[in-house]
Each structure stands twice: as C-alpha cells, then as structure tokens.
Amino acid sequence: MTRLLLVPLDDAVVFPGMSVTLTVDTGGDEELVLLVPRHDKEFAGVGTVAKVADRVRLPGGARASVLEGLHRGIAGAASTLPDGRLFVEVEERPDPTGVPDGHTRQLEREYRAVVEEILELRGDDGRIGAFLRSITDAGSLADTSGYSPDLTFEQRVELLQTIDVAARLELALSFQRERLAELQVRKRIRDDVESGAEKQQRDYFLRKQMESIRKELGEDEASVVDEYRTKIAEAEMPEAVREQAEKELGRLERLGEQTAESSVIRTYLDWLIAVPWSKRSDERLDPVHAREVLGRDHAGLEDVKDRIVEYIAVKKLRVERGISEDKRSGAILTLIGPPGTGKTSIGESIARATGREFVRMSLGGVRDEAEIRGHRRTYIGALPGRLVRALRDAGTMNPVIMLDEVDKVGADWRGDPSSALLEVLDPAQNHSFRDHYLDVELDLSQVLFIATANVADTIPGPLLDRMEVIRFDGYTTSEKVAIARGYLWPRQLERNGLRPEETEISDDLLQTIVTEYTREAGVRSLERELGTLLRKTATKIASEEASAPVVLDLGQIRAGLGRQRFFQESAIRTAVPGVATGLAVTGAGGEVLFVEATAMPGKPNLTLTGQLGDVMKESAQIALSYVRGHADELHVERSRFEDEAFHVHVPAGAIPKDGPSAGVTMVTAFTSLLTGRPVRHTVGMTGEVTLQGRVLPIGGVKQKVLAAHAAGLTEVVLPERNRGDVDEVPEEVRDAMRFDFAMTIDEVLAVALEPAALESAVQP
C-alpha cells in the first residue's frame, strides 16, 4: 500500500498514459498523486496514479502541475493533514507485462478493426491510425477509448474501474461498436438524402427537357389536365360535384405536376371520377320472377321473400303510374337470426331477382368511424369510406349492399361506427350522405341496404329503430331435410367431384343426420356432415373400393360420421326432483337449458354456477324468495330454509348464459326440489316471474319452440301474453306440440310438475 495525495477531478477522467495540466498545487515534494474522478461529491473507487512532471506558476499567481498518468490505483483509507490536504492509502495496480493470451490478442485485433472503420467513416487523415498502430500494450490499447469525445463520463469511469485487461478490452470494444453502428446509420441516412436530392434534380431537368420536346413537337403541355377535364365531363356528375371537381382541377393546373400536392389532388379526382354518379342498373320489376328466383335459391324464409316481392311490386306500380321517386322511401331490411340460416346468401338472390349489382360489406370488428365516413383529406394516406368503395365496386348507384354482421360493430377512441351508420341507414337522411374524403353529397336513397345480425340485443337502439327487422328463427326438421335434398346435397356432390347418379341417400337417413348429428337453427353443420359423407364416398369410388352407384345406409353413416352426438335426454335429466327444462335464445338460435337445484345442510345461502349473467342471477334470487314466501301454499316446510343451503347450476358452464326468460324455470326447479315432485320430462318452459308470482312475456318464442321440438319435447309452457306469437311457429311444429299459457306461476307449476307425486309431498 502506498500513501498518496488525492487530487479530485470534477466530471473528468485521466487514464494511464495521458498527460494533463491541472490548476492544482500539489505542494511539498510529492512525486506521485492519485487522480480520482468525482461527480456530485461522489468519488470513484479507482483512480490513476500520476507522476508530477513539473510545477508551474500561471499568470496571476496561480499554481499548476503537469501530471502524467502511470497506472491504476485502488483508493483505500483516507486521512487529512492540518494544511487541509487529503491523503489516501493506494493499492497500485499496473497492467501486467508479458505476452498476452490468445483471447486477449483476438480482442486486440477486433478493437483495432472497429476503430479503423470508425476513423474511415470520420475521415481520419492517418495520424490517429498511425498512433493506434504504434501501441502494442493491450491495456494501453483499451485505454485509448478514453480519448473518444463520444463516451459519457459514466462510461469513462466504468472503463477506468475495469482492472482486468481482457475485460477492459471487451468493454472498450462494446463502446466502439455502438459508436460504429451509430456512424453507419448516419452515413446511410446522409447517402439516402443525397441520392434523393440528386434524383429530384435529375427529375426536374428531365421534366424540363420533356416540356421542351413537347413544345418542339407542338403538343399541349397540359395534356394531363385535359385528360381529367374529359373524364369529368363523361362522368355526368351532379352540378355541385362537377364544380368541386373543376375547382380541384384548376388547382392542379396552377400548381403543376412537379409539386408534392399534385399527387394528392390527382388521387382525389380519381376517386370523384370512380363514383358511378350517372350509372343505374336496369331493374327488373317483376314480382313473379322475383318469387321464382328466391324460391329456387332458398327453401322457407317466406317472410323475407314476401317483403322483397312487396318492395318490387310497389316500385313497379310507382314506375308504371308515373309517381315521382320519393327519396325517403328506401328500404332498410335487417335479417336477424342464428348463423347458417341463409342471411348472407339471400342478399345475392335479392340482387339477381331485381337485376341489381351485389356488394358485401363485412362490419364485424370495425371500430373506426372513418371506415364508414372516410378520412379527411388533411390526413396522410386518406381514403374514402367503405360505402364509396362499395359504389365504385358495384359500378352503379342502385346496388344491393349487404351490411354483414352489423351487431358486431365496436367503438373505441377512434369513434363509433354505429353512429355513422345512422345517417347511412336513415331514409330521411341518406339521400344527402357526405363522405369526409370526397366532401360532396352522395345520394344513397336508391341503394337497397340489407343488414344481417345474429342478435338484436347488441345493435344500438337508434340504429335498430331505422331498420325493418325480419327474423330468421331457424328451420324445422322437415325443412332441413328438404333443404338438404334440394340444395345442400347437390352442391356437395358438385364440390366433391361426384355425379348425381353415383350416390344415393334416402330422406329417412337425411332426417337421421339432422336429428342425431346436428342441433342448430341453421343448416351449416348439416352441410358439413353431408360433405364429410360424400368425401368418404368419393374416396372409395376414386380408389375403386366401391363401384357406382353407392347407396348410403345407416351403417355407412355411423362409420362416416361416428357415434350419435345428440340424444333425447330430457326424460333422464328430469327424472329426479330439482331439475327443470328451460328454453332460451342465444346467438346460435334456440337452446334447451336444464336448470338444476339442490339443497344441503348448512348455513342458509344461495350458490349460483354455470357462468350465469346478472339477469339470470337475479332470476334465481327472485325464484328462491318466491318459493320461500309461498312455502305454505306450495306445501314446503319452512324449516328447510333455515337449515339448508341451496345451489343452482345450469350445465355447460363454459358457455356464458344470460337473459330475462329463466324465472319460471328457476321457480319450478326449486319447487320440484322442495316438494319432491319431478318435472314432467316432456315439458319445456320459458318466461320471467315477479315476486308476486306473475309470469311476464318474453321474446324469441319461435326459436325456443323450434329448439324444444328438436330436443323431443312435446309441451311448452309460455306466458299468456305470448299467445299470439305461437302463430309464427310453423304449422307442422304447432300440430306436433301442445302449448300451455300461464298468467301466474301457479298455473306453470300445475302443468310442469308430476301430479302423481303431489300426495306424498303434502304435509299431514
């Protein structure tokens, strides 16, 4: 250990090998001092042992010392002399001498190569490179990084405090690599800018030469402007739109082709010209033909077909009788129903029936209002909205535009697209729709808008108010068989490369597939199952395992589709008290839900499982309160509510369930549990209940009844005020089922519970 005078260096670092002159008086006759970096009064742990080469007096009387860095030293204990000077114990750590190992030699080579690249990029005149090559000591080579003006104070201190030579070389190498990467990026940017400027100059001279050549040839230099002027005249735009187009064309003519704004103006003019302002499809206003086309493409859906035929008939009478076109008479049809019921495909049929063009706009997941209204031209990359693009694609101003999945439109910080649709779908406003990009009025009143949705609940109320709703509630079993025979089977034969005479299937087997392998409102899964069968048949014919015609039987269906997937399980599920069969509507159509209730000894409590929504949770609480409040009338011991906890579960817990139609089912399940009377396995029920026991009306009657029929139920309990909704149910289903209408929960229980168990449940 050596005792040396400490000389602090504020925000500065001196490395071994450096020679500096500092305005400090080393005093006495000290030959060695320790130079320690200091920042915010904090000393580094390692300094540089320096030799006092000379002491000089500066003008004005100040003293300075010339110091030469020798090697590193680790500062230890400190002591202060009476004259105020600070001495520290120093462990001197000179770099080792001798031949370095292979790893150190490799680091030296890499360091020299990186620094030479840096010097080349910075335009070194060769002096620094020669100085670098003259250094043979590895430690001194690493310390040369300390000369770089690009290193921060913290990086220099880190380099000084690295005692090990190999580690110091690695650290210096990493610093220089960062600097090299930065210089390379700067050079690339500078080269790109220079090449861009050269290209602009070259393009400028070429354009000038082109102008001179055109003048020599006698050609008009404003041919681009004339071309746009001709297109604007041919587009037959409305007067206001034509004035806007000519105004922008004048700006283009004044600015010239060389300006950056010219491309923006040309893009805008291209979009104005692309809109088919004067083009109309020749409508075929023939109700009989429309009925034939719709009937040929789709089975059932009579409500939709009737509405389209009515629209065509009214339009035909207005044209024949010379009644002026009413811009506020546009039809906004909204087809709401489960997937696979033909909502989207019927739009194409409507277009064929009316002779119009068809364009589909999928709105699922759209969250930006600009997707509907377009972006304002002040934004970079602005474009018109989807409606303008749909008109351009259609090529006419009176197409059929299908707004698909309108119930899945979202909203976030970019706006609410559903609010923008209000103007589009309002017949009182859409004759003057204004796109933000075009900024001119568009007449959408001649467009036949057809929107589709799975559920109406997620469509905003103001938007739904502007729509004429037609519900697709699903198909009966016989309708599915008819669709499979007339539509799905021929289509799948063609898709799988089969001829109609090469395979056969009976209607009974089609019905087996419908009832045992699908349970959906639509026919999408049914078509997939038929495709699976026909692919396996095609494989057998192609591999010569079977010869045509192949007649499918039950065994081949089981082999192709696997075991039966759906069963009539209501008799098994409701055999014990506490289980009731409810009916619900989801985005996939009608569903049969089994509500299970059980009791167990313990503190009074109600547990709800099955991923129920807030509405169904409230229904369960209301149901328990009703049963508890009417325990005497229902022949239930009141002590059970004091000594038992109740649990209500709706199976298929991975599927969220909610809706205001499970009240009567919950009451029936609790009553069945507490009286010991099982629920009749043929009965399904739906309806909301109040605390007074009144049964309230619900929606989705047709879908629920179809689901009950598909599940094998033969009797449905409905609220009295839904009596008229039964008329919407297909006649074959009405004939096969019995309907009971209830005003109070007592009427529901009288129908739903097994009467045979009543006597044993009544208390003596």
Question: Descriptors for this entry?
Answer:
5 domains, five-stranded mixed beta barrel, Archaeosine Trna-guanine Transglycosylase, Chain: A, domain 4, 25 strands, Rossmann fold, alpha/beta, 764 residues, disordered C terminus
Count up the helices: 27
Strand order of the largest sheet: 1-3-5-6-7
Number of domains: 5
Broad CATH class of the largest domain: Alpha Beta
Tell me the fraction of residues in β-strands, as a range: 15-25%
Oligomer: single chain
Mean pLDDT figure: 84
Overall SS class: alpha/beta
- Gross morphology is extended
Residues in helices, as a percent range:
40-55%
Give start-end ranges of low-pLDDT stretches.
756-764
Sheet with most strands: 5 strands, mixed, barrel
How many strands in all?
25
What does this structure look like?
By secondary structure, this protein is α/β, with parallel strands linked by helices. It folds into 5 domains: 2-93, Archaeosine Trna-guanine Transglycosylase, Chain: A, domain 4 (Roll); 223-274, no CATH class; 287-471, P-loop containing nucleotide triphosphate hydrolases (Rossmann fold); 477-561, Helicase, Ruva Protein, domain 3; 570-761, Ribosomal Protein S5, domain 2 (2-Layer Sandwich). The chain has 27 helices and 25 strands. The strands form 7 sheets. A 5-stranded mixed barrel has the order 1-3-5-6-7. It has a 5-stranded parallel sheet with strand order 9-10-13-8-14, sandwiched between helices. A hairpin with a 6-residue loop joins strand 11 (433-434) and strand 12. Helix 6 packs parallel to helix 8, helix 9 packs antiparallel against helix 11 (343-354) and helix 23 (663-675) crosses helix 26. Mean pLDDT is 84; it is low at 756-764.
